[in-house]
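Q: Got a minute? One more chain.
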Amino acid sequence: MYFAIRSCGQDAPKTKAFYESTSFEQYKAVNEKFADAIVKEYKKGDVVWVNDYHLLLVPQMVRAKLPDATIGFFLHVAFPSSEIFRCLAVRESLLRGMLGADVVGFQTHSYARHFRQTVSRILTLEALPGGIDLGSSLCEVAIFPIGIDVRALSEKRRDPMVKEWVDVLKERYAGMKMIVGRDKLDEVQGVRQKLLAFEAFLEKYTEFQGKVVLIQVALSTTEENESQVAVFDVVSRINSRFSTLTYQPIVFLHTQDLTFSQYLALLTVADAFFVASLREGMALRTHEFVECQEGKKRPSPLILIV
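A: Always. Here it is, folded:
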């Protein structure tokens, strides 16, 4: 689903070619392995819970072998509109795979609405406010927005190491405004667009050159894409254009480069947290930022562009 949405949004012909190749057959084979493993371990009364776009076909595969099983499916990423989803060559197979579940969960009302409309328009099934009428049964469609463990995060913030790093960061970037971001290095996270916006800001408001820094934390991704190279190129260009002997506008870090205590310290001292995702399931890092701003007299703003 994740790569399907990305390809549909930017290059539908490539999407069709992708799914007509052996790639979809490999995707089906992987789903079959998971389904077989579930059936092998299943005991009467068990609840089967399938997660995310990697396993869209599993609910129907399990249903075919265990017709009375209770099956739930939750999609962590965004579900596109029917106009986008219909570009997929295997659209019906993916939808029927999901409809094998008793309940299909989404992060937001809009994603659930997109799913109901897509099923109605592509499979011509009746979409009800609470789910999809399959004739002999109802596949419930529900919203289950995920969140963070606020209590655990609050306790971690009181760690002396976090306080120590807060002091270090305040001293290191004294007199400067600090913008923080944390994203996966793939196309839908909009990291390149964020960097270009920051570059345009420095060009237009020259008085902020040398006075604002963007600290971008990058999460590794297993997806092969050209976005990582494009991001590195933009970072290099911006730093070469605006850096001085004592100033570097972008500090680019990978998650393995800093501890969780350092990350929480960044969120605590940040003057702004910047998210520019093109499509997002649920940006939990924004929740973490808001929690880390708790207790401040004037909490820093969250810049959320989606």
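A: The longest strand covers residues 177-184.
Q: Perfect, thanks.
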